[in-house]
Amino acid sequence: SQGAMGGRGAFILFEGADRCGKSTQCKLLVDGLNSRGVEAELWRYPDRTTAIGKMIDGYLQSQTDMDDACVHLLFSANRWEKRKLMLEKLASGVTLVIDRYGHSGTAFTAAKKQPGLDLEWCKSTDAGLPAPDALIYLEMPVEETLKRDGFGGERYEKTEFQREVVKNYELLRRDAWKCLDASRTIEDLHADALKIAMGAVEECRTGKPLGTLWE
Ligand code: FDM
Ligand code: MG
């Protein structure tokens, strides 16, 4: 079935360092879209509910150890395993608001600075996945994110590591990214995100083709 107004749904991606407000904005955006008659769902990566996702969850909670390349491939596989459903949802007119994707995958693994696991290698495992129609990057210095609730106990929630992650996001950054200053109020950010998303929804509804990474 096609969406009520015809055409495909949009893939809206939120990226940014830990504690920048991604999850809050994702939830608000899905509600905002739904209340404007745009059918939207919230997805997140890693999706910890699948068999692969459970392996990733154990790793992030330091219950298990894994080779750095191996866990990178699992994060990537966790996106590939959901590709078919993603394509079906978008084709049926549903807009997907997604909290992290392959950009997190590359920014985090490359932050480990292991030989061979450079940006290009990290990107390569996601090449061919559906590309976002709009990428909203919530920009915030690591110092500012530290003033927020503070990190939890997961594996990557360390100040120095987050600094490297932010540097990698800067290296991945493209002109098409919609960069928002994450230190603004929740309401201000939401207003901008909603404007960006409604623009993408309209473009997709009227025939914009879905791209693939890493265009
Ligand atoms: N993360 C997330 C990765 O290292 N690679 C990936 O491909 C993705 C999607 O997992 F530290 C990291 C980012 C974060 C951790 O993410 C869990 P959430 O958003 O905190 O659940
Ligand atoms: Mg986290």
Automatic annotation (TrEMBL):
| Metabolic or biological pathway, per its Swiss-Prot or TrEMBL entry | Pyrimidine metabolism; dTTP biosynthesis
Q: Report whether Transferase shows up as a keyword of the record.
A: yes
Q: Which GO terms describe its biological process?
A: dTDP biosynthetic process; dTTP biosynthetic process; dUDP biosynthetic process
Q: What region holds the Thymidylate kinase-like domain?
A: 14-192
Segment forming the signal sequence: none
Q: Mind telling me which NCBIfam families this protein's record contains? A: DTMP_kinase
Q: Which HAMAP family match?
A: Thymidylate_kinase
Kindly provide the name given to this protein in its UniProt entry: Thymidylate kinase
What organism, scientifically named, is this protein from? Chloropicon roscoffensis
